[in-house]
Amino acid sequence: AASALRKPNGGEFVAEGDTVLITWDPAAISDPRLAADPIRVEVSYDGGANFFDVIASGLPNGGFYETTIPVGVTSPAARIRLVAVDEAGNEGSDVSDADFTIEPQLFVTTTVLPDGDLGVEYSGVLDAFGGTAPYAWRVAAGRLPPGVTLDRATGVLSGTPVAEGVFTFIAEAEDAHAFPHRAAQDVTGMVGSSSGALRIETF
Q1: Bridge partners of 130?
Q2: Residue 203 has pLDDT above 90, yes or no
Q3: Surface-to-core class of residue 178, CB atoms within 10 Å of its CB (0-12 exposed, 13-18 middle, 19+ buried)
Q4: Residues facing residue 125 across a β-bridge
Q5: Which DSSP symbol is given to 112?
Q6: Whether pLDDT at 1 is above 50
Q7: pLDDT of 75
Q8: CB-based contacts of 127, cutoff 8 Å, min separation 6
Q9: Would you say 118 and 161 are in contact if contact means Cβ atoms under 8 Å apart?
Q10: pLDDT tens digit string along 131-180?
């Protein structure tokens, strides 16, 4: 099964909960002595030192298999091993050439932002965890309090609130992955008089 595995073959970044396509070259493990369903796919989370987890077994030699990474599983040094078994039970295998990374799932982590007053300069920041930094931020729905703007690159909310009221919006973070992950959080902003406060909370 030498040089059979195509991807993930090292250097990729995926996140827990992602669907991952494992591919290989069927011709590289073509052998008339192979059993009818010879392919087993295993994963290591320690750079290939151990392959304790079997992702799938009894697969046809079709060249691909799609799997979902369980939530709660992360590793900076994951590898895939592709195993072929012949009719006599002899095994041949191919392992990812280098480590790939399984990152934590992307979450917007901000729960409460600083209070502010109507007509007074305001500053707060949205934070996220997981995925591949840096993050890009946007208001996916709703609107910010008038006078307050969101810096897409930093997640900083700033400006001077110019109107009273309750403002609800959805803050969305997108990571820098080649196939970006996104996470969103409902946010509510309350703008009061100078004797009241601006409070933006996630829930």
Answers
A1: none
A2: no
A3: exposed
A4: 156
A5: B
A6: no
A7: 95
A8: 108, 109, 110, 155
A9: yes
A10: 888 999 999 988 888 899 999 999 999 999 888 777 778 889 999 887 78
- Sort residue 58 into left (φ over 0), alpha (ψ -120 to 50) or beta: left
Give the pair of three-digit tokens for residue 113. 């932002």
Nearest-angstrom CA–CA distance, 74 and 122: 37
Distance CA 34, CA 173 (A): 48
Where do we find the tokens 């195993």? 83
Yes or no: say if 42 and 56 are a contact pair by the CB < 8 Å rule.
no
Rg of the chain on CA atoms, in Å: 24
Amino acid at 155: G
**Spatial CA neighbour of 40 closest among 50, 25, 19, 54:** 54
Contact 199, 168 (CB under 8 A): no
- Is the model's pLDDT at 2 over the cut of 50? no
Q: 3-state SS of the chain: helix, strand, coil percent to 5?
A: 0, 50, 45
SS3 call for 29: helix
Q: What's the pLDDT score for residue 197?
A: 42
